[in-house]
Structures are given as structure tokens and as C-alpha cells.
Amino acid sequence: MSSFCVESAGGANPKFDDDGRQKRSGTMVTAAAHIITSVIGSGVLSLAWAVAQLGWLAATVCLVIFSLVTLFTSHLLSDCYRNPVTGKRNYSYMDVVNSNLGGLQIQLSGIAQYGLLFGITIGYTIITATSIAAIKCGSKEVCHTSENWFMVIYGIIQIVLSQIPNFHNLTSLSLIAAAMSFAYSFIGIALSLTKINQGDGHIVRSLTGIPVGWRGLRSEDKVWRILSGMGDIAFAFAFSPLLTNIQDTLKSSPPENKVMKKATSLAIFVTTFFYMMCGLIGYAAFGNDAPGNLLTGFSSFKPFWIVDFANICIIVHLVGAYQVFSQPIYAFVESWSSRKWPKSDFITREYSIMNGKICFNLFRLIWRTSFVILTTVLAMIFPFFNDFVGLLGSIIFWPMTVYFPVEMYIAQKKIPRFSGAWNRLQMLSLFCLIVSLLAAAGSIHGLIISVKKFEPFHTTS
């Protein structure tokens, strides 16, 4: 069993890297697994609903554009991992912004990054409880069961897993979680193809999505739904805040930026393929009646154990994904606390058990446990997964995925203001800002509607 202890520098010790930290062992495969774990989340199952709102053409165009923009800006971000002058590593997204831009933008990037990650952990708690409830209900047409206890169980599991010190110890968990994301995505696609093959003359599909007048749909509602669908797609690609932390797990040779570019290219290609398959095939299977969660549309499918297995895969995946999204928050708070109180044994001292095979820290134990409890309680109070996280995704996509990578690349390469390259990069940034604002407006509208119906701690499926 490998040690979970966080070791300290020791000169030229081969156990440590050039910065005195534990030797990094990450590769393109492990980095891609981390990215896929964070990208192919439960949100992939809502894409059929998004396609229903936008229609075949617009949804396909949106998926392709968001993936290409994310791929381009991710490559820009990977070049910012090391300071071009000193060669010093940047361990987090905020460190990259500090190294290349500085000033107020450091605080703004921190608020955007950690706000998104915090919101996603709440959303994952909600969707995991929903999947557990779906398994409990089985094929019952009417089933009302409280999800609160399921959220508590999920929270207890995360309290235990949160004691894993850092990203470097998450490789196995990420590989398992990535495999689960593939499994339930494949099942969703397979069930959709089966439904298409069975044929149903009542399924209505359209090039432009659900038409005005369909079951009383008004023109303004159609617009809001289109914007909300764009928000869902934007959220599906809002993973840039994690990329620097993932790049920091890579071995120093070959150069981290080259390996990271290959990893992001592979991961984005794979995830976009699955997004297209789940979204377009899911819409083909259900048409205008596409559900918010693709798997909930198969409640009458037999044998039902296949749907149960898909929900189990979602649960296992989100157990790992929660850690991928929460570890940067843990690292930020613990790093700041160590700098603030370097002589405090409560914060810095590591205790070993099982002959040093496992180490724990009192501050890490209390702080991370408190964080998980907070996210669990908030999930129980505000169970609005789609609107809440969709809003976060649409707001954060532009600054974290586009604005900061573009501005840091311009600063690092010293691109002249108003030059051709500068103008093209700024036009890309402006376009993405407009799209993000429109998507945020749709999510806010949906959130307002949800709030009107909500009762705290009364979440049921």
C-alpha cells in the first residue's frame, strides 16, 4: 500500500522534483483520465434535452464551436504552466494568472474558479442522490422518496475520500471514475438506439427543436429554453479551472505543456464525441419529449437492471469527480493557511498511522470534513441541479475558459495591441462573452421558476 503522506523536500533526493515537491509521475493517459473524469459528468445525460430545445442544426453547431474554442484556449493555458523567464511552476489556475497578469485579476480568477468548483460539488451531491433514488424506485411509474438521506450517505463517503492529500494520489480513483462515465454514456446511447429501432410513430423531431405551440409552449418560453440549452452545453465544457492542477501532476520530461496539449486534445475529442452521441441520438429516441436526464426516460425498459447499472456507474463516477473538483479548493485553503501560520502544529504537523503507510493532519481532517458537510447541507436546501450549475457554467465559461487564457497568452507572447493576432483573439473573447451572457440569462430565468416551487429539505424523486 502506498503512503498518503505529504513529504517535504530533500535536496537532490530522487523522490522529489526540482521544486522540492513529491516526484510527479503523471502521463498523457493519466492527465486525459483526470480531464475526462471532470468533463464527462452527469451533465452529458442532459444534452438530449438541450438538443430538443435548439434543434438538430443549432445544437450540433454549438457543440462543435464550444469544443473547438475550449481546445484552442486549453492549449494556450498549457503554455502558461511554467514562467517563461524563470521556469518556475504554477501549481494552480490562480498561480498562472498571478504569474502572467497579476493585480486585481488574481482575485477575480480565484472567485470565478473556486465559485464554479464549489457549485459543482453541490450539484454532484444532488445528482448522485437522484441516481440512488432512481435505483430504489426501480420501474415504478409513481414513486416519491426523499433524497436527503442519500445525500447524507454520499457526504459521508466524500468525508473519507477527502482525506486523500492531493491530486497526485487520485490517479486510480480518476481512472475508475472515467471508466464509469464511459459505461453509463454507452448505456444511454445503446438504450436510445434500441428505442429508435423499436420505432414509435408518436415521436416528433424537428430541425429547429421544439416548435412554438407544442403543448402550450409560448414564443418567449422557447427563447428562454434555447438559452438554457446553450447554458447546459457551456457547462459541459467549463473545466478549464482544473487544467493547471492536472498539468501539475505530469512528469517534467517530456515538457509538461507538450504532454498536456496531447492530453487535452485526446480528452476533448473523446468527450465531444460522447456529447454528440448522447445528445443527438437521445433526441432521435425521444424527440420533443426528451427528458432532462436521459436515463429517466427508460423507466419501462426491460430488463430494468441495465438502467440500474447505468445509475450505479453515475454514482461511482461522481464519487470520484467530486474529489477532482474539490481538491483544488482544499489545496488553496491549506496552502494559504500554511503560509499564514507556518509554526502552527495544528495546521502543518502530519501524524502517521499503520507504520507510516497513511498520514493525516488535524487541520485537513476538520477543514475538509466541514467543507463536505457544507456542500451536503446546501444540496439538501437548494436542489436545483440543472439551473444552479447551468448558471455557474454559463457565467464561468467566458472568464475561465476564454478571457484569462487569451489575456495570459497575449501577455506571455507580448503580442502588440491592435495587431492582427490581438484583434482575432479579442474577437473570439467578445463572441464567447456574448454567448455566455445569453446562456446565463436563460439559466437565471429557469432558476427563478424553480425557486417559486421550492421547499427546503423536502427534495423527493
In short:
By secondary structure, the protein is mainly α. It has 14 helices and two strands.
- Total beta-strand segments: 2
Q: What low-confidence regions span 5 or more consecutive residues with pLDDT below 50?
A: 1-11
User: Mean pLDDT, nearest integer?
Assistant: 83
Biggest β-sheet description: 2 strands, antiparallel
- CATH T-level topology: Hydantoin permease
Helix share, percent: 55-70%
- In the sheet with the most strands, the strands line up as 1-2
CATH class: Mainly Alpha
Silhouette:
globular
DSSP strand content: under 5%
Total individual domains: 1
State the distance separating the first and last CA atoms. 40 Å
* Second rung of CATH, namely the architecture: Orthogonal Bundle
Query: With helices defined by DSSP (H or I, 4 residues minimum), what is the helix count?
Result: 14
Radius of gyration: 22 Å
Q: What's the CATH H-level superfamily name?
A: Hydantoin permease
Order of helices and strands: HHHHHHHHHHHEEHHH
SSE-based structural type: mainly alpha
GO cellular component, one term: membrane
Transmembrane segments: 31-50, 56-78, 114-135, 147-164, 170-193, 266-286, 306-333, 365-382, 388-406, 427-451
Protein name: Amino acid transporter transmembrane domain-containing protein
InterPro entries: AA_transpt_TM
